[in-house]
Amino acid sequence: xxxxxxxxxx
Amino acid sequence: xxxxxxxxxxxxxxxxxxxxxxxxxxxxxxxxxxxxxxxxxxxxxxxxxxxxxxxxxxxxxxxxxxxxxxxxxxxxxxxxxxxxxxxxxxxxxxxxxxxxxxxxxxxxxxxxxxxxxxxxxxxxxxxxxxxxxxxxxxxxxxxxxxxxxxxxxxxxxxxxxxxxxxxxxxxxxxxxxxxxxxxxxxxxxxxxxxxxxxxxxxxxxxxxxxxx
Lengths: 10, 212
Description:
The structure holds two protein chains of two kinds.
Chain A: no helix or strand
Chain B: H1 3-26, H2 34-47, H3 58-81, H4 96-108, H5 115-129, H6 132-141, E1 143-144, H7 146-173, H8 178-190, H9 192-200, E2 208-209
Antiparallel strand pairs in B: 1-2
Organism (chain B): Laccaria amethystina LaAM-08-1
Subcellular location (chain B): Endoplasmic reticulum membrane
Membrane topology (chain B): Multi-pass membrane protein
């Protein structure tokens, strides 16, 4: 789910 | 984590060490755009705010802290320690033309209309164009020290490697991050001219010189 994006990249 | 992303991150790390090495061995920040470096501080600070409320991994946190700390340190070196070696008269790109549109874009394109998500989007868009003052400066002077070109190449390779990383993640995890991918492709595209000269000249042992 995009609204819950984790942003695990730098 | 996959091979491409790890290699990309290592390339990013390498670029910072090359830049620090350049500044410290030549005792000069000649040829380096202060504006680009300042934009990177803005990029890292706005993106890595999530250090305070989201834990991904030790790797992730350590890298984030390193990128914030090293970018601030580089700014310090340029602003104070090696200030006389920085020539603002050739570092003339108007960064408000980058900051404004990136801010507007982040209000339109984000994954959630919240403070942290808008800042995250802003940082992604800003990173994509943060190199422009540096490339503009290069264009103006028409030449660069070899070590500076290694720095730029490592920085460009870092973003280029994120592209196969996204392709890999799409196939293995079904994951797509349209904001990061779009901005990342633009960002990598900005390096194409530079890469052309880097690969055809610098890596052949010639000086980085743009045709007059």
